[in-house]
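Example 3.2
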Amino acid sequence: MAHWLFKSEPDVFSFDDLIAKGDKGEQWDGVRNYQARNNMRAMKVGERGFFYHSNIGKEVVGICEVIAPAHPDSTADDPKWECVDLKAVAWVVNPVTLDDAKAEPRLKDMILVNNSRLSVQPVSDAEWQVILEMAGGTRAI
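Structure, written as C-alpha cells:
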C-alpha cells in the first residue's frame, strides 16, 4: 500500500479537528492543484498518510487513513476537482518538524523536504519508516 502526506494549516483545519470527526471522517476538500488532485485520485481506501501542520508548527503530528476514494469535491464549482475522505487513526509520539526532516540525510529526496508547498504528496515506504522512527512511533487517539 502507498503512503501519503496531507498538509493543513492548523488554524484552518487541525489534526484535532479531524479527530473530532470520528470514524465518519472528513473530505479533504479545497485542493486546487492538479498534482495534489492526481495524488488523491491514485489513493486507495485503507492507505495511510501523515497529517502535517503547515505554516504554524511545520510538523508531522499524526496519522490518518483514506476511508473513501476520490470523488467530486463538494466545495468546488468545477467537477474536475476531487478529494478523498480521511479519518484520524493515531498521534505520533513526538512531532517531526520540517527542520528535523531536512536535517535527516535519509530524507534528502522526500518531496516534503524538496517541495514543501505541495499539499498532498506521496511518501515512500522508506521515508514512512524514517519519519515513524524519528517520531518515536505512534500513540492512540
